[in-house]
Amino acid sequence: MAVYDFFTLPRDVTELIQRNSELEDEVANLQSQIIQLQEQLQEADILYSLLDYARSRPADEYIAAAVIGRDPSPFLQYIIIDHGSDDGIRYGMPVVTQQGLVGRVEAVTASAARVQLISDAQSTVNVTLQTQDADALIEGSISGDITLEMLNQNVSLNTGDILLTSGLGGNYPADILVGQVVDIQKTENELFQTAYIQPVVDFDTLRAVLVITNFQTTNISPLTNETER
Amino acid sequence: MLANFVSIPFMLLLSVLQSTAISRITLINGCADLVLIGVACWGVKEKGYNAFVWALVGGLFTALITAMPFYIPIASYIFVALLAKILFGRIWQSPILMLIIVVFIGTIFQHILSIFYLQVNGVSAGLITSLRNITLPSLLLNLFFVFPMYVVVSDLRQWVLPGEDYE
Prior knowledge:
The structure holds two protein chains of two kinds.
Chain A: H1 2-56, E1 62-70, E2 78-81, E3 94-96, E4 101-108, E5 113-117, E6 124-129, E7 135-139, E8 146-152, E9 162-165, E10 177-185, E11 192-199, E12 208-212, H2 225-228
Chain B: H1 2-20, E1 26-27, E2 30-31, H2 34-43, H3 50-65, H4 71-87, H5 95-120, H6 127-160
Antiparallel strand pairs in B: 1-2
């Protein structure tokens, strides 16, 4: 047997080298498959969460969209999603995730749309406190911080209070989670108290969103200053 | 002529990279502007007027993506090309030093335009906050990306315009 091995060993080594090379290729293929599957799994997790959220609010109709880009200007807080007017996305539609409010559609092309985040400096959202009957509004800023404004001094505001959309103004549906109070600025001489808000959505890691397609925004501008003059 | 045609795919690539990847790399609230750096890199290496075409093409692509009005990116990039044209060969004949100056002044000009636009539209964009949280970090990131971009644009230029380097 040893003699047989002695004579056949070189051939076996060649075969082993070839086999080793084949196995290395297979390992590389499997590793790339694992990475792809992990990515698909992450995507599926996100989509399942979005689906759960959509099922919890059956009255609304949704289109799921992936976040494909951000506004290049550091002064603006916008994202770009991969669905546009061809998919039924229209100007003004509210955008949410399973966690809460993201923003609203601000511009649409055939295959993509630009969404203004609630942290954008030009964004204002009417909100209400979850535990009290008190309306206020939240405003974004150029640095992406969100503040609670126009809240009556009589309201007892506490750190950790939850904010929901109030539906006033007609831009967003009511009762969507927005964020929670993290720091209160209350000065007795001021008419209103203000507070810093921690949004429930992490805008830096957004990968997929839901666009609410059956919500009709209300244009209240004819009822404001211009017609009163 | 070829240089102008090349600007279309190159600036498209930079705009897409800017929107998808670079805008996620932030320092405080600032982020780099690849298109601005690309225009500056091309501008500091030539005597001609191709950089203005690059600025226009880059500005148009950026205007398609950004919520800023179209004239802000276009004006910023044309200003960068103009600055590169004015300074060409005047600062110790050194394109790298000139590039840093062009990117530095160009970034500040772009941010002043943006802040002015926001102020006009009723957004309270405090100068100190903008400078501390956005402009200075953006400047730092822009200067970080200057050198790799300079190498890429130099190679591209040698391929498009062989033997016309003024370094």
